[in-house]
Amino acid sequence: MPAEGSRGFSGPQYPGRITSSVIIACCVASSGGLIFGYDIGISGGVTSMDSFLSKFFPSVYQLEEQSTSSNQYCKFDSQLLTLFTSSLYLAALVSSSVAATVTRKCGRKWSMFLGGLTFLVGSVINGVAANVLMLILGRVLLGIGVGFTNQSVPLYLSEMAPAKHRGTLNIGFQLMVTIGILVANLINYGTAQIPGGWGWRLSLGLAAVPAFIITIGSLLLPETPNSLVERGKNDQAKRILVKIRGVADVHPEYEEIVAACDEARAIEHPWSNILKSKYRPQLIISSLIPLFQQLTGINVIMFYAPVVFKTLGFGINASLLTAVITGVINVGATVISILLVDRAGRRPLFLWGGIGMFLCQVSVGALIYVQFGVSGAGTVIKKLAAPVLIFICIYVAAFACSWGPLGWLVPSEIFPLEIRSAGQGITVSMNMLSTFAIGQTFLSMLCYMKFGLFYFFAVWVIIMTLFILFFVPETKNVPIEEMMLVWSNHWFWNRYIADEDIIGNRYSNYGT
């Protein structure tokens, strides 16, 4: 049965090419991923610095200093410490619904601007923080910024890119996320060497740099044709479309966007409309893919890599350096995904990535069991640290080729315009909710589940890989406004698509 769903649908190909205008616009917009990635990378390194722990989380610092601790799994178990990391994602969850409305009514670029500006303020507060309350306040503002940029940037990229290059350009967002992580890891490694123990302030405060880039860059961006038509600026939309496609005859694509916007204007309540049966495939997939993305366990590695490596016997400098190594691999594998996504397609990358992550999670779990056993006591076996690092690096590469970029790409390209902002809002909300849950509970889960935590994530990788195999169709090369035909041709989802959803509207010109 899954073979039928994997054939996909190749919709009409509109004239146009990748122009310098669209490349520049997508590169600037993708810089919104820098703030997300920088925060992911910076928090884990900062929370492993002794000077930071002793100032804000003295109980964790004291427990870490007790070399005779009976349980290595529980050295960093502190709900207040994890709240420092995860509070950002709770704020992003709350702000994403507001961001969806701003993105729809004011445009994609203004949502990016608000996100960058809020993140900028939050980074300054974190850099000068004098107590935990200031830290959390700064994190909340960072979270609001992430909620706005993660809502608007993937939509912007999907709407600006030609259909046959949409995957490549959209993954630019994830590439910037990985670059942000790598830069943060490098900065953490450097600031940890600063005498006086104030390097963590520089690490947190430098988040203002990527925030400044997206804040200023968003003001220079053109709005997407889809958003302009949606807000009644048709002439301006057509001029932008001619510019970014590099051809004078954009009439077929322009008429398709206009038709989509006419339908969108008829929808007064997109948040309730998205619950209709014909949108069931998009609703389920956009909810489960971001949930599954976090259940791969990737943010366990990205948030707490230095903490994990420190637990395994690496010193602080070595643990930060290993985080740099995984960051380099993360960037390199994302570049590979960019090269493959519009050639191989989304499904093959999802499936191969799932297999690779599963094997690595099982291997890491086994090695950590050999290292610490069930009790978590005993002497650290340093010779096992290198194999653990190798498998974690392979795992990061598998994720960065698959669930990392595709977890943002696929949800951003499957919604029709009338529910697109609401749909992306659901995607961001689910991503932030699951990220918050994993981030807040990981250290406690490690304490109680021990090495079995990695098997927990491995089981979820099996489940999500099977979900892709049976329920996620191929979407490469399909124009974003023709995506309804993908669902009508799928072996399972076609039961939710009535004939009147296809015939008699703008899809009828292309048949089923």
Share in β-strands = under 5%
**Which shape, going by the Cα principal axes?**
globular
Classification by helices and strands: mainly alpha
Rg on CA atoms, Å: 23 Å
Distance between the termini: 19 Å
Looking at CATH, the homologous superfamily is MFS general substrate transporter like domains
Look up the CATH topology: Growth Hormone, Chain: A
Helix and strand pattern: HHHHHHHHHHHHHHHHHHHHHHHH
The averaged pLDDT comes out at: 82
Give me the oligomer status.
single chain
Number of strands: 0
* Count of alpha/pi helices: 24
Family: Belongs to the major facilitator superfamily. Sugar transporter (TC 2.A.1.1) family.
Protein name: Major facilitator superfamily (MFS) profile domain-containing protein
Keywords: Membrane, Sugar transport, Symport, Transmembrane, Transmembrane helix, Transport
Pfam families: Sugar_tr
